[in-house]
Amino acid sequence: MGCSSCSTGEDGQPRGCKNNGTCGTDGCNKLTVFDWLSNMSLPNGEKPFDCVEVRFKNSRKEFYRVGEDLTLSMGDLVATQAKSGHDVGMVTLVGELVRIQMKKKKVAFDDEELPKVYRKATQKDIDKWQKCRDKEDEIKKRAREMAILLRLQMKISDVEFQGDGSKATFYYTAEDRIDFRQLIKDMAKAFGIRIEMRQIGYRQEAQRLGGIGSCGRELCCSTWLTDFRSVSTSAARYQQLSLNPQKLAGQCGKLKCCLNYELDMYLDVLKDFPSQDSKLFTEKGMAFCQKTDIFKGLLWFSYKEDPAHWHTLTKEQVKEILVKNKQKEKVASLEMYAIDNLEKEPTLFENTVGQDSLTRFDRPKNNNRRRKNKKRRKPTKPSNKNA
Q1: CA distance 268 to 231
Q2: So what's the pLDDT on residue 115?
Q3: 103 plus 161 within the same structural domain
Q4: What percent of the chain has a predicted confidence (pLDDT) above 70?
Q5: Do 157 and 236 belong to one domain?
Q6: What is the pLDDT of residues 110-159, one digit of tens each?
Q7: Quick one: 163 and 246 in the same domain?
């Protein structure tokens, strides 16, 4: 970990700040940005960029304009403009990198309606903001109970308070459209604040909650992944994975994001491979492709009449047969090509001394005693009553 509160202790065990990336030093958050222009001074006559990037709870980031009389640096807590009242957030980026991020997010930095930074957060603002943050878990629990009583098919996953405590945003997931007008009335009456409902996807819910994946590591979306790309089942097909929804789905119920990590490499290699739908025509019959191995450069084909018996061919051999088929020539059989690809399994151990038996030091069973006992025992003759 980067921050001091998350570093290891004297006994080697991790201390853990238990703030899930929102600790004061801000060194263990996945949204922390490294300002590589911080040591460089501006040219003569250039004014510093008057916009900053501010991060709020979880992954929400927004851009704000700063006045000339206010100087901010990364890590400062500021009071920002909101629709009503003010909000409290942490400055994560200043300077020319903010201009680059605004271009990337397609935000016009010359927009006059861009919200402003009021001031640096005072101790009174921070105490009020922290007090509201402490109430979020309790309010989330009560809101879930209200939704269950109204029989709404939705799940409230997170609550975010505004810095001044006058408004709370409830994030929820649902399959269909939900009529939560009565729920808003009940929550506004019970909590005495303004309520805003915001629907999020299942991937965003997993990002907020976190967890451990099937690989044994923390979820990518909750540790370092900031953008969610669409994942389709074709990514699993290109990588020769079994289309098992229980193995391909993550904790969010959608396809795993890691299916896209190696997809580009597979697509580049498959460009040099024959199509998996290609058919080979031989004198023994037509053959279909059953399996490919891009790492070894092998393909397995089987005849239409005998699909259980597979023949191993290299991609060069398959291309050679396809060229002959285009010239309306048939090869004799797949066996004459596959026989060259048979590899002998290397012997891992050779018995040179003859002492490979695990029981060579055991005492042999003495069967002679059993034979002698059988000879000593004489069979009893049946008694004759008449005699």
Answers
A1: 18
A2: 92
A3: no
A4: 79
A5: no
A6: 888 899 999 999 999 999 999 999 999 999 999 999 999 999 999 999 99
A7: no
**Pair (148, 165) in one structural domain:** yes
Residue ranges making up the domain that contains 224: 207-269
Last residue of a domain, one of 200, 215, 244: 200
230 shares a domain with 184: no
Is 206 exposed, middle or buried, given 0-12, 13-18 or 19+ CB atoms closer than 10 A?
buried
Strand order in the sheet with 194-199: 155-161, 167-173, 194-199
Does residue 359 belong to any structural domain of this protein? no
Contact 85, 122 (CB under 8 A): no
Label residues 258-274 b or e (16+ Cβ within 10 Å = b).
Answer: bbeeebeeeeeeeeebb
Q: Is residue 65 part of a domain?
A: yes
Q: How much is the pTM?
A: 0.67
Q: In this structure, what CATH number is given to the domain that contains residue 157?
A: 3.30.300.20
Do both 216 and 142 map to the same domain?
A: no
Cα 34–chain centre separation: 24
* Structural domain total, the chain: 4
In this structure, is residue 192 part of a structural domain?
A: yes
Residues 114 and 157 in one domain: no
Is residue 7 domain-resident?
Answer: no
- The rounded mean pLDDT for the chain is 82
Shared-domain flag, residues 243 and 173: no
